[in-house]
Amino acid sequence: MATAKEIKSKIGSVQNTQKITRAMEMVAASKMRKTQDRMNASRPYAEKMREVISHLAKSHPEYHHLFLDKREEKRAGYIVIGTDRGLCGGLNVNLLKLMSKELKRCQDSNVEFDLCLIGQKTQAFFKRAGGNVLATASQLGELPTLKTLIGIVKVMFDAYADKSIDALYIAHNDFVNTMTQKPILQQLLPLVPEESGQLDYYWDYIYEPDAKEVLELLLRRYMEAQVYQAVVENIACEQAARMVAMKNASENAGNIIDDLQLAYNKARQASITTELADIIGGSEAISD
Amino acid sequence: MSKTMQVEIVSAEEGIFSGPANMIYAKGDLGELGIAPNHTQLLTVLEPGAVRVVTDNEEQVFYVSGGLLEVQPYVVTVLADFAMRAADIDEAAAIQAKKQAADLLTSKKGEFDYSKATSELARAIAQLRTVEHLKSKDSLK
């Protein structure tokens, strides 16, 4: 059985760990609020953009943009958005599980794939797992700006435009609420029009200056908005997941400390008892 | 009262305006646009400048740095790259930016991005024009 001193030092180290997890929980909680605000602020743009795009898909444009065409899928592109740092529960693991399943499906149906990785954790994973990486970005911070993402979006955009990939998907965590984050995979290109009963008659936009230029700009903005939204959402997920994970860790540390404290008390009591028995035994031997 | 349409002004970082309006004015790529309810579908690129929204009892002015304008008969959506209420523009900062951009253009020092400087200058001038418009309106009252 461990001595009282050993147990005491173990309690100390668990207490230190608990202090760290508590601090991380509080930091994550305050960051979560900020990142959630950012996520909600940029939502209207992404939603309006999606609305305009779905109107567009329903129009009958004189100029047919290649982003609206469906091609046979021989090579697919994936934008995978993970976190830079760990200690955020199963966030990255769940996402990468989803991706592995998807990539397995690709291999089974003989579709090759290219990757665009955001966040160091996804980069580390695919370094081990392999795969052709076209672009990466990491260290975006808690409040990324659209500017930092334009470069990598362009790489994937161009790859689609020159037909080196036939479809583009994006995988990230969806913020359901503080307790729940769900990994999802969405198709970005070719565009998937949303179903709605309106606007089914024959019409087209007036384009100024001309259709090609306007559509080019619109679709580029659309892509950027979708990727940006996914990134800010994933960051909000990260902070929420970290907060929950650290809360659990602090609670577990508390339980371990309780158990150790009990063991320590028992060990101390046992040593006192043996000492007493020794003294009594000794004094009886002298008095005899 | 006359017919209204739903107007939505959103920028990449936040939603700026949402509500019914009687008329909206913006600066498109091919010139000034005035859009009333029931306008035909239109999709255009926006130039940096003011977007004016006329509602029942007032006119609101916004500054956009460029973007897209989508018109449907009862919905007008402004997808701005960057937008703000004109009242929030810091005039001093805009003047400063204009001066800097103009300096950049006139200075003949070797390496500098000509197109970037021109676009910065256009942006600063557009901001100033928005502020001036707001001021002239105030003085009329």
Indicate the topology.
The complex is a heterodimer of chains A (288) and B (141).
Chain A: H1 4-58, E1 75-81, H2 91-108, E2 112-118, H3 120-129, E3 132-137, H4 147-161, E4 167-175, E5 181-189, E6 206-208, H5 211-287
Parallel strand pairs in A: 1-2, 1-4, 2-3
Antiparallel strand pairs in A: 4-5
Chain B: E1 5-11, E2 15-21, E3 23-28, E4 31-35, E5 42-46, E6 49-54, E7 59-64, E8 67-72, E9 75-80, E10 83-85, H1 91-106, H2 114-140
Parallel strand pairs in B: 1-9
Antiparallel strand pairs in B: 1-2, 3-4, 3-6, 5-8, 6-7, 7-10, 8-9
Helix pairs in contact in B: 1-2
Instruction: Calculate Rg of chain A over CA atoms.
Output: 29 Å
State the largest interface.
A-B, 28 and 24 residues
Strand content of chain A: 5-15%
Class derived from helix and strand content of chain B:
alpha+beta
Oligomer: heterodimer
Spell out the helices and strands of chain A N to C.
HEHEHEHEEEH
Task: Return residue spans of chain A where pLDDT drops below 50 for at least 5 consecutive residues.
Answer: none
- State which percent range the strand residues of chain B make up: 35-45%
Number of strands of chain A: 6
Describe the sheet with the most strands of chain B. Answer: 5 strands, mixed
Shape of chain A: elongated
- Summing up helix and strand content along with how strands pair, one would put the structural category of chain A as alpha/beta
Helix content estimate of chain A: 55-70%
What's the β-strand tally of chain B?
10
The CA-CA distance between the termini of chain B, in Å, is 24 Å
End-to-end span of chain A in angstroms? 34 Å
Largest sheet of chain A: 5 strands, mixed
Shape of chain B: globular
- Low-confidence regions of chain B: none
Q: What's the helix count of chain A?
A: 5
Number of helices of chain B: 2
